[in-house]
Amino acid sequence: MIRSKIFLVCLLTIIVLQAGGQINIPDKKRFWDNVYFGGNFGLAFGTITQVDVSPIAGYRFTPRLSAGIGGTYLYYKEEIRYLQGTYKYETSIYGGKVFGNYLLFSEDNNFLPFNLGNIILQSELEFLNVDTYHYNQAGYYTDAGRAWICNVLAGFGIRQPIGARSSIDLLFLWNLNDTPFSPYSNPVIRVGFNF
Asked: Which residue of 19, 24, 35, 185 sits 20 to 30 Å from the alpha carbon of 75, by its own alpha carbon?
């Protein structure tokens, strides 16, 4: 099953690359003009504490097509109240990813009578190191150590330029390889910055 999902993401990536047309290798002095950095940062406090730091580095092969790599660190803490007391769960999740995105429609070439904004397609292959567990005979879960999981994410979003070389992305992604240990629930909604 995982092979078919990875095949699907690879196929989508090939389609995106074909849609992007020919890729021209820029002059050496212009390489850094096509490099961008960014990512997302998130905080949540209350009964659940969550900190998300996910930097990325990408390269624009064409004005519409880009790809890159990134890292992910998630800190999660929750207090679960039972009749017998309180259970405190705390974990760190970390890993890396490769991604590609394609600008499907943009404001300047929108063929519709209304403005869609800058619509992008995105796919990611992410590997995360997470806590795993299993249920014992008494119905409680016990720690089974850490393991690497693979998330295959695909979806769309809106890119809003905020300057000549900066933008904000609002992405709606679906984890095609959802497991009980995945830190995400579908859809995965991300707000990221690129500069």
From this structure: 35
Where is 17: in which H helix or E strand? Answer: helix 2-19
Structural domain total, the chain: 1
Asked if residue 26 belongs to a domain, the reply is: no
Measured between alpha carbons, how far is 63 from 60 in angstroms, rounded to an integer? 6
pTM: 0.74
Spatial CA neighbour of 67 closest among 22, 105, 107, 122 = 122
Query: Which residues span the domain enclosing 57?
Result: 2-19+35-194
Is residue 141 within 8 A of residue 162, CB to CB? The reply is: no
For residue 4, the tally of other CB atoms under 10 A from its CB is 8
pLDDT single digits (tens) 38-85: 998 888 877 788 899 999 999 999 988 999 999 999 998 888 777 777
Q: Rg (Cα) of the chain, in Å, rounded?
A: 20
